[in-house]
Amino acid sequence: MSIRHVGFLGMGLMGSRMAANLKKKGFEVTVWNRTPAAARALEAAGVHVAQTPAEVAAKVDAFCTCVADVAALREVALGPGGLLSTAKAGQLFIDFSTVSVALVSELGAAFGAKGVEVIDAPVTGSKGGAEKGTLVIMAGGAEKAMARAQPLFEAVGEKVVHCGALGAGTQVKLAGNGLIAAMLQAFSEGMLLTSKAGVDPRRFIEVVQASGFRSPYFDFKGKALLEHDFTTHFSIDLMHKDLSLLLDNAAAHRVPTPCAAAMRETYAVARAAGKGAQDIGAVVTAYEELVGHRIGQSASP
């Protein structure tokens, strides 16, 4: 079955931009969101708005989800009036969310029993990548399903890595988010320490970016930390959720992950300070408050 009409459920920072790119690339698009106003914002671009997930699945050739967590995806996909209730053989289900491997397997079994092909395809690239259609997609699923999904992937991303069977994309995404958390924590701690010691933290960034551990991520986050610009690209609450999923997954495989455990506690500190809705870069502000110094503030060693 060729894919012309695509459903997209979840109009958050990522999903709304991905749905808009699908429309720009020539697909007919129907969207749904728990809060209707977020979905209606796309109507001017010619996107249809459905009243329920079931209505989406009843109309489209393929449906995509990008929601916050396990509970939200379970409700949208398997709950009363959910996608499964009207899904039919020959459709394609792509989940762009970051959820548990166990739920991905459950969705594969439930939708597979109705003849629906399922791909887990979490993404990285933040809202900027979603806006530009330059996301990196980590996909898990059968080769046949991957081939059908390729035009949709090309509409929202610039690179697709087929990680393996269903669930493999989620395995890679969770591991990757553990790495992001560790990188950002070490980087922000370094900036805070050098600044508190009386050294311009820009010199720290300069050395990092001239060394073997340089990363474009540090240019992006370094500027945000210096300016205290914590416009949300990826929230503290969501990273805490992903680190919790990573630890659960590691426990299931009996793999020790002490670094990820420590990172989750840094996010727990920030959440306890009421910063959960802010960007992950704002984690450092909880530590700035503890030491009484802000990155870039003049200080004597």
What does this structure look like?
With 301 residues, the chain is α/β, with parallel strands linked by helices. It has two domains: 5-164, Rossmann fold; 171-291, N-(1-d-carboxylethyl)-l-norvaline Dehydrogenase, domain 2 (Orthogonal Bundle). Helices cover 51% and strands 13% of the residues. The chain contains 13 helices and nine strands. A six-stranded parallel β-sheet has the order 3-2-1-4-5-6, with helices on both faces. A three-stranded mixed β-sheet has the order 7-8-9. Strand 8 (135-140), helix 7 (143-156) and strand 9 (157-164) form a beta-alpha-beta unit. Helix 8 (168-196) packs across helix 12 (258-272). The N and C termini lie far apart (67 Å). The relative contact order is 0.10. The model has no long low-confidence stretch (mean pLDDT 96).
Tags for this model:
six-stranded parallel beta sheet, 301 residues, single chain, 9 strands, alpha/beta, 2 domains, 13 helices, 51% helix, N-(1-d-carboxylethyl)-l-norvaline Dehydrogenase, domain 2, three-stranded mixed beta sheet, Rossmann fold
Uncertain runs: none
Order of helices and strands: EHEHEHEHEHEEHEHEHHHHHH
* Measured distance between first and last alpha carbons: 67 Å
CATH architecture of the largest domain: 3-Layer(aba) Sandwich
DSSP, total strands = 9
- Fraction in beta strands: 5-15%
In short:
With 301 residues, the chain is of the alpha/beta class. The protein folds into two domains: 5-164, 3-Layer(aba) Sandwich (Rossmann fold), CATH 3.40.50; 171-291, Orthogonal Bundle (N-(1-d-carboxylethyl)-l-norvaline Dehydrogenase, domain 2), CATH 1.10.1040.10. It has helices at 15-24, 36-40, 53-59, 70-78, 101-112, 126-132, 143-156, 168-196, 201-209, 216-227, 236-252, 258-272, 283-291, and strands at 5-9, 28-32, 48-49, 62-65, 92-95, 117-120, 123-124, 135-140, 157-164.
